[in-house]
Amino acid sequence: MATRAAIAIREFRRDLTPTAAICLLVILLILLVALLAPWLAPYREGEILTNSSFASPGDGLLLGSDYLGRDLFSRLFYGLRLTVIVSLAIAFLAFFVGCSLGFLAAVFGGRFDMLISRLVDALIAFPSIMLALIVLTALGPSIPVLIITIAFIDSTRVFRVARALGVEIVVQDYIEAATVRGEKFGWLMWHEILPNALVPLAAEFGIRFTYAILFISALSFLGLGVQPPQADLGVLIRENMQGLLYGTFAPIYPALCIAAITISINLLVDWYLRRNDASLPHDL
To answer: Are the C-beta atoms of 81 and 89 separated by less than 8 Å?
Structure first.
């Protein structure tokens, strides 16, 4: 087992390109900051340090202050933490629902597949942002509602990918052999379908994760995402937009964080697919 792990690590390091290495380092740094934000941030999230709005960097304020005089550097740590946690929760929930239904539709086929697929097509026909705004306006923009709403929207995309992969896999000879042996659906999913679909699903997970970050940030910027006193990156941009009139970069820093995360993950996903000589199904 140790030998296999060592071989896998050596192959991974050999195949890692400079661009992928930089992206991986950025992602690991972001995850570390998100995990340790309360200990790494110089000040508490809501601590007011100066009476000046959009104060310039200095006097312990590395990036200056926000519109209430809070340390913008510390706020970025906490905003990044909330954004990453909520986005991961959305991605995992979307994959659990989407993959389960997609593999079920692929294995059982027939009317069940037709019913689920047409329902998903109908949901995808609605603009995602409009559907989210309707739900959040009706139920209120709490974090649990935000996670469930975006995960539900994302699960329709995951369903299409999982179903397309499942349809390609269930016609293989090893699936037929396992069925003849009397293996049940649960065994087929965990031991045959999922392992053979893992590479494109892992890539799709990265794409869904970045989509969740962008979606949350957009909703928060519109005022229907994360609500004060909590703040994600979208809230930090919306709160400090007036800073541009004072010549400060306060709203630029969280926007750069969003760009760094999404670009790094997308470049890493591209490298991962090329390394494994795989691609997402085209029939989506």
So the answer is: no
pTM score over 0.70 = yes
Q: Is 165 within the bounds of a domain?
A: yes
Identify the band that residue 236 occupies on the pLDDT scale cut at 50, 70 and 90: very high
52: in domain: no
3-state secondary structure the chain: CHHHHHHHHHHHHHHCCHHHHHHHHHHHHHHHHHHHHHHHCCCCCCCECCCCCCCCCECCECCCECCCCEEHHHHHHHHHHHHHHHHHHHHHHHHHHHHHHHHHHHHHCHHHHHHHHHHHHHHHHCCHHHHHHHHHHHHCCCHHHHHHHHHHHHHHHHHHHHHHHHHHHHCCHHHHHHHHCCCCHHHHHHHHHHHHHHHHHHHHHHHHHHHHHHHHHHHHHHCCCCCCCCCCHHHHHHHCHHHHHHCCCCCHHHHHHHHHHHHHHHHHHHHHHHHCCCCCCCCC
Domain count, the chain: 1
∠ CA 242-244-247, rounded to 5°: 125
The answer to whether position 234 is within a domain reads yes
CATH of the domain at 202: 1.10.3720.10
The residues that bridge with 58 in the sheet, in sequence order, are 61
Of 54, 83, 39, 43, whose CA–CA distance to 211 is shortest? 83
The CA angle 173-178-181, to the nearest 5 degrees, is 130
What is the domain extent for residue 254? 18-41+63-275
The model's pLDDT over 167-188, given as tens digits with 9 standing for 90+, comes to 888 878 777 787 777 777 777 7
176 part of a folded domain:
yes
